[in-house]
Amino acid sequence: MNLKKTLKSIKLHETTISMILGAFVIVLIGVLLINYFAGRSGETVPAIDIEEEITLPASHSVSEGEDLWKISEKYYGTGYNWVDIQSENNIEDPNQISVGQELVIPDVSPRITEKEAILTPEPIAEEIKPEPIAVKTDSQEKIHTVQRGENLWKIAELYFNSGYNWVDIAEKNNLRNPGVIEPDQKLSIPEVSAKILTVAADKKEEAEAISGATYTVQKGDNLWEIAVRAYGDGYKWVEISEENELSNPGLIHSGNILSLPR
Q1: Which InterPro entries match (predicted)?
Q2: Both 246 and 212 in a single domain?
């Protein structure tokens, strides 16, 4: 009987009870929110990383592992402006820049824009089966079909007897990354003179033979001279390059330790 009265009383006051419970829930949520934000009051909001706009001319301090090509890519979006940085700073040997060296980055236009750097192979009038030397020609220019294992240095040697002409092939074909070429890719071979590396005769005579399995690069060294001193054959620079997985054989830095395959 008492239970029946109790239920009847609850039903009569149902609205009041609902309001009380609703108010309690609101107060509870408010307390939880206050405690949450109070706990975060001491936190530091991380700063938004805004990319710094590069203005030229600029000053650049050389970091570990950088070369003129990489520095040029940072400021111009293309490595080909390394020649402008070299000229602006009167650098005699572009292979020799040191960590901490201050360079002036000149205000010049990028030599290759991003749009121009997209390689679009030109159509070939007639498909010719690959020949042993992998050379294709038409009435106007030489076309080379990349073979597996080739790089621009090797291709430059094939056509110019000088690997240093790799930069001419890269510019002719607007290659954004000269270190990456694919088998069967078609490359136009420019009509330019061979780039010849000149070395003073007295330096050749005084250079000591290299007999060890490693060699520490000295100022003014290049792979050809190292191969001559290590093997008596400059053309073995290719083996040194492959052994050390050099992406750009034309750029080595003093202090680098090279493995010499024996």
Answers
A1: Bact_Kbp, LysM, LysM_dom_sf
A2: yes
